[in-house]
Amino acid sequence: MGNSKSGAVSKEILEDLKLNTKFSETEIVQWYENFKKQCPSGRISKEEFQNIYRKFFPDSDANTYAQHVFRSFDTNDDGTLDFKEYIIALHMTATGKTTSKLEWAFSLFDVDKNGYITKSEVTEICTSIFKLIPADEVADLAEDEDTPEKRANKLWKVFDKGDDDRVAEGEFIKGLLENEDALRLIQYEPLK
């Protein structure tokens, strides 16, 4: 299917993505062609990624959140996203199962990548999420989550941990699956 021509997605990556995502071969090839047009180098830098996020959140400060999202997607820690990392990320955030999305969310909150999250990491991510919320929407938030710190405290209480404790991935996923309100706290969806 056109994989023999120069610049096409490799058979190995194509097979891997077909196995690990819900995307068809045709969809993957189309995504790849678009990716190569947008990123002729075959990689997305952190700055390019931040520019993409700014377009989705033009009325907000998306830079900090975009940096955290980028870090969580850059699985080989090379400072760029290649096509495979990009598609896996797209799959997880757009079409993946709830558990897969929560595994990704855990990697987002695990800022230092040590396999645990702390209250300070929760506060850091909640602060970056909060920056996505336009000022006029902040005024409409519940009083117990109208600042990043309050939102982080509310989320941390879900895990029934002290301020100096830490949460493992399984605890994080279980806590969020058992608390619909907590699921809402780890994201921002524009009102539109």
Q: What is the general shape?
A: globular
Number of helices: 11
N-to-C SSE string, H for helix and E for strand: HHEHHEHHEHHHEHH
- Low-confidence spans: 1-6
Main β-sheet, spatial strand arrangement? 1-2
- Strand proportion, as a percent range, falls in 5-15%
| Total strand segments | 4
Rounded mean pLDDT is 88
Structural class: mainly alpha
Q: Helix proportion of residues, in percent? A: 55-70%
> In whole angstroms, how far apart are the ends?
40 Å
Q: How big is the Rg? A: 18 Å
* Largest β sheet strand count, sense and barrel closure: 2 strands, antiparallel
| Quaternary class | single chain
Overview of the molecule:
This protein has 192 residues and is mainly α. It is built from 11 helices and 4 strands, in the order ααβααβααβαααβαα. Helix 7 packs across helix 9. The model is unreliable at 1-6 (pLDDT under 50).
Summarize this, please?
By secondary structure, the chain is mainly alpha-helical. It has helices at residues 11-20, 25-38, 46-56, 63-73, 83-94, 98-109, 119-130, 135-138, 148-158, 169-177, 180-185; strands spanning 43-45, 80-82, 116-118, 166-168. The relative contact order is 0.10.
Give the topology.
Layout: H1 11-20, H2 25-38, E1 43-45, H3 46-56, H4 63-73, E2 80-82, H5 83-94, H6 98-109, E3 116-118, H7 119-130, H8 135-138, H9 148-158, E4 166-168, H10 169-177, H11 180-185
Antiparallel strand pairs: 1-2, 3-4
Please tag this protein with its features.
disordered N terminus, globular, two-stranded antiparallel sheet, mainly alpha, 4 strands
